[in-house]
Write a structure and sequence with these properties.
The protein has helices spanning about 35-45, 45-50, 60-70, 125-135, 155-160, 190-200; strands spanning about 20, 25-30, 80-85, 95-105, 110-115, 145-150, 165-175, 180-190. Helices cover about 30% and strands about 30% of the residues. Bound molecules: coenzyme A. Coenzyme A binds near residues 112, 153 and 156.
Length: about 200
């Protein structure tokens, strides 16, 4: 009989926090109540929410999501960590990233991201998600990281390809988007693939 899987150390009671994370241009940190306006700014933009399962937000929607994130912060460790991506240069929260231990016994996690449109195509999502992948395979000892997106969301899957993730699956009409049933891509990377890449680039 296989042994009962243990929780990875990062999820055991008393695990040390790994926040904030720092990248060259961003700080990934816990969200605060002061971030309301910055969150509401991108969450009301129809272009930002086009491929998301939420939005465009009312003020009440943003209040609820922020309250949920603040409530989650009372627990550490936790399986799902939503973070503010704060732009170092101007201090704004320019996006949110999510990191989740989706399958702890298999040391598998996933991530997601949304950024304010004013900051698109400047490499911020790649920078943030790259930091999450390095965290996962480094300090957190994970072995597989994946992410999914609407197959039409070119910006999102380009980020994953830039990070060396492989397109593993196309799920046909597996879920409902704002405009109907959508196709979903799943991209993934393994710890040893990331390590091999780090030595070749
Ligand atoms: C998806 C998203 C997070 C990407 O963030 P970003 O900071 O712009 O990403 P990056 O700048 O790191 O990389 C984007 C890449 O996609 C490319 N790209 C974006 N739109 C494109 C398009 N329509 N056609 C071709 N390439 C496109 C950019 O040129 C860039 O690639 P490059 O560096 O090779 O030029 C951002 O567009 C966003 O917040 N979208 C709304 C929320 C969302 O859809 N989140 C993802 C849910 S799965």
């Amino acid at each position: 009989m296989p042994k009962k899987p243990e929780l990875p150390p990062a999820l055991r009671p008393g695990a040390e926090t790994w926040l904030p994370l720092e990248t060259p241009r961003l700080i990934l940190r816990e969200v605060t109540a002061n971030d309301f306006d910055d969150i509401h700014d991108y969450a009301t933009d129809p272009e930002v929410v086009r491929y998301m399962f939420w939005g465009p937000n009312t003020r009440r929607d943003t209040r609820n999501v922020l309250a949920g994130w603040l409530r989650d912060q009372r627990r550490w460790p936790r399986a799902v960590v939503n973070m503010a991506a704060q732009h170092k240069a101007d201090g704004r929260m320019i996006g949110a990233v999510r990191f989740a231990f989706v399958d702890p016994p298999r040391l598998t996690c996933d991530f997601g991201y949304s950024f304010n449109r004013a900051y698109w195509n400047q490499g911020f999502a790649t920078e943030a998600a790259g930091a999450l992948i390095d965290l996962a395979f480094g300090r957190l000892g994970m072995r597989r990281v994946f992410a999914t997106c609407d197959a039409r969301n070119i910006g999102s899957w380009r980020v994953m390809e830039k990070l060396g993730m492989r397109r593993e699956a196309l799920f046909r009409q597996d879920t409902q988007a704002h405009d109907g049933w959508r196709d979903t891509y799943l991209y993934a990377i393994l710890a040893d693939e990331r390590a091999a890449r780090a030595t070749t680039v």
